[in-house]
Amino acid sequence: MRDSRWAWFCAIVASWTLSACATNMHSDRQSVAIFTNPPDSNVLIDDVIHLQAPGAVTLSRKANHLAKIDKVSYVPTTIAIERT
Q1: Degrees (nearest 5) of the Cα angle 41, 45, 51?
Q2: Are the C-beta atoms of residues 9 and 2 closer than 8 Å to each other?
Q3: Partners of residue 67 on adjacent β-strands
Q4: Integer Cα distance of 37 and 41 in angstroms
Q5: How far apart are CA 9 and CA 5, in angstroms?
Q6: Strands 65-70 and 42-45: what pairing?
Q7: Distance in angstroms (rounded) separating the CA atoms of residues 64 and 1
Q8: More confident residue, 38 or 8
Q9: DSSP label at 47?
Q10: Cβ distance 42 to 50 under 8 Å?
């Protein structure tokens, strides 16, 4: 009887742990690394998030995003970050 309870306890803990892992792997946000050439460019994502590349941002997976990249003496550019 005791072995049966221990087996059920292990099964419940394992299923809880694995489901938490799946939730973390499939969340609605993702970290995205931003690299530019030339480095140290200013990046504006969705007119809200400001950073200097290289860097990382956490973006929603539910929408596409727009990154505007600018540096003095270089032509500004805009790049779409599309969800997949």
Answers
A1: 40
A2: no
A3: 45, 79
A4: 8
A5: 6
A6: antiparallel
A7: 55
A8: 38
A9: T
A10: yes
Residue 45 has pLDDT above 90, yes or no: yes
Confidence of residue 8 (pLDDT cuts 50, 70, 90): low
The least confident of 10-19, 22-31, 49-58 is 10-19
Mean of per-residue pLDDT scores for the chain: 79
Whether the CB-CB separation of 81 and 32 falls below 8 Å is answered with yes
pTM given for the model: 0.65
Task: Look at phi and psi of residue 75 and say left if phi exceeds 0, alpha if psi is from -120 to 50, else beta.
Answer: beta
Q: Are 83 and 62 in contact (CB under 8 A)?
A: yes
In the numeric block, which tokens belong to residue 8?
């059920």
Cα separation, 78 vs 81, whole angstroms: 10
